[in-house]
From TrEMBL:
This is RapZ C-terminal domain-containing protein. InterPro entries: RapZ-like, RapZ_C. GO terms for molecular function: ATP binding. Residues 4-124 form the RapZ C-terminal domain. Transmembrane segments: none annotated. PANTHER family: RNASE ADAPTER PROTEIN RAPZ. Signal peptide: none annotated. It comes from Streptomyces laurentii.
Length: 137
């Protein structure tokens, strides 16, 4: 029996979370966020986690690789347990940068383990949300 792993990235700031039964939930909100970083804001904010520069920025955040590795192991174990479908919900605040980059990385690593992966970026084309962090001045 093949498990279909359905990965959905989204932004919690949009107030319309995807529905799923007993999902694996991946919270990326502790990772660096391009719109909150003055060093890259102008260059990366209008891009998404599908862009290599944003993907690299997110994946080089301390803890990002460990977050992915931990969830790949969890998803792999649950898939091997024989479920026909496994939902993975990956969220950040706006659904355009961190969640997309991490979802892409999860999908690539799970596909490399011969899992059948479906990937959907729910909020990638939504407008940018205002930053929740105050700039220090």
């Amino acid at each position: 029996m093949t498990t279909v792993i359905r990965i959905v990235s989204y932004g919690v700031g949009h107030d319309d979370e995807p529905r799923a039964h007993r999902p694996v939930v991946v919270d990326t909100t502790e990772l660096r966020n391009p719109p909150d970083d003055p060093a890259v804001r102008a260059r990366l904010t209008q891009l998404t986690g599908l862009d290599p520069e944003v993907h690299q920025y997110v994946m080089t955040t301390p803890g990002a690789r460990q977050l992915v590795a931990r969830h790949v192991r969890e998803i792999d174990v649950r898939a091997e347990a024989g479920q026909t479908r496994l939902d993975v919900l990956v969220h950040c605040y706006g659904g355009r940068h961190r969640s997309v980059a991490i979802a892409q990385q999860l999908a690539a690593e799970l596909a490399a383990l011969d899992h059948h992966v479906q990937l959907h970026h729910r909020h990638i084309n939504r407008p940018l949300l205002p930053s929740r962090r105050k700039e220090s001045r």
